[in-house]
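Input record, target 12 of the design panel.
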């Protein structure tokens, strides 16, 4: 694979007062897409962006807050590394292995490889996203480690989103069972359901439909519409089902990366379609996955057929 070297001048950023940044943080937090509805957490990253000479609103593009912990997206790390004069040469990038050499005039050179053996060694094999989107997850790990090794300034002192999600998952205690009296319909406005299991089933149904819509998004405009339409539900997932929230946010990020040309659209949409079938727990969710498969022309793919058979085998 060829070398990738891009150096873009950083546009001048107007000075922002603390009041300006507070308004930006409040607007982003109210949107819910960023991964946090806490304006104070968002404000902290707005201040970080300002300190690095960036517009505070880039936190919406470049960062996530996962269970209260800040993370920087792998694409943002890569862009900042290249803009700082770094170079990346990809030797291999597929579902089995991501292998690249990172170099920078100030930090030297390092070749970083992540493959299934490293994933197993790090005990990440049970991570659903590593199973559904192995190439994207391996790529993100390589970028994070490579940039941190050669030119750590491009990481902003943060870990990549997938790394933070894994750290949170390892440290998270078992969630207490919510009392049945607080179980609510995930869509909101409907009568209370029988208990927390029914509440989660509703959430899983929405996630399956959302994954199908993400996979069907043909361009960024279509993806933005899907994301905007799901903002309220994602905010609710943040409070009630953070693991499902991470599945949705990772799907957003993976699809956006595919649309930008990272890793190829066909394999990515195939993985997301299979993910929609895997998440389907109701007939409506199964129908949504079928629609996505048909729109994308993947209904006859052997892997999609197998995923659909597994879904129907669950009694849908």
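The sequence produced for target 12 reads:
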């Amino acid at each position: 694979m060829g070398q990738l070297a891009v150096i873009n001048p950083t546009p001048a950023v107007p000075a922002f007062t603390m009041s300006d940044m507070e308004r930006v943080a409040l607007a982003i937090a109210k949107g819910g897409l960023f991964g946090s509805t806490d304006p104070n957490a968002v404000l902290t990253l707005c201040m970080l962006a300002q300190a690095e000479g960036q517009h505070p609103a880039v936190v919406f593009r470049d960062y996530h807050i996962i269970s209260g912990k800040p993370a920087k997206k792998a694409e943002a790390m890569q862009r900042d590394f290249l803009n700082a004069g770094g170079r990346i040469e990809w030797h291999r990038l597929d579902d089995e292995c991501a292998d690249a050499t990172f170099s920078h005039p100030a930090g030297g050179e390092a070749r970083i490889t992540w493959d299934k053996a490293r994933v197993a060694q790090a005990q990440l094999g049970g991570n659903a996203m590593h199973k559904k989107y192995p190439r994207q997850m391996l790529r993100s790990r390589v970028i994070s480690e490579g940039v941190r090794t050669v030119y750590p300034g491009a990481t902003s002192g943060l870990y990549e989103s997938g790394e933070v999600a894994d750290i949170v998952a390892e440290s998270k205690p078992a969630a207490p069972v919510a009392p049945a009296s607080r179980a609510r319909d995930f869509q909101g406005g409907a009568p209370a359901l029988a208990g927390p299991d029914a509440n989660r089933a509703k959430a899983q149904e929405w996630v399956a439909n959302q994954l199908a819509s993400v996979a069907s998004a043909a361009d960024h405009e279509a993806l933005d519409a899907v994301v905007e339409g799901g903002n309220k539900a994602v905010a609710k997932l943040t409070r009630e089902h953070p693991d499902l929230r991470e599945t949705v946010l990772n799907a957003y990020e993976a699809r956006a990366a595919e649309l930008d040309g990272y890793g190829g659209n066909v394999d990515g949409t195939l993985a997301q379609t299979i993910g929609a079938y895997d998440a389907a727990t109701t007939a409506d969710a199964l129908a949504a996955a079928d629609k996505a498969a048909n729109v994308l022309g993947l209904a006859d793919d052997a892997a999609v057929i197998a995923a659909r058979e597994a879904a129907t085998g669950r009694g849908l």
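Confidence is low (pLDDT under 50) at residues 5-9, 174-194, 262-267.
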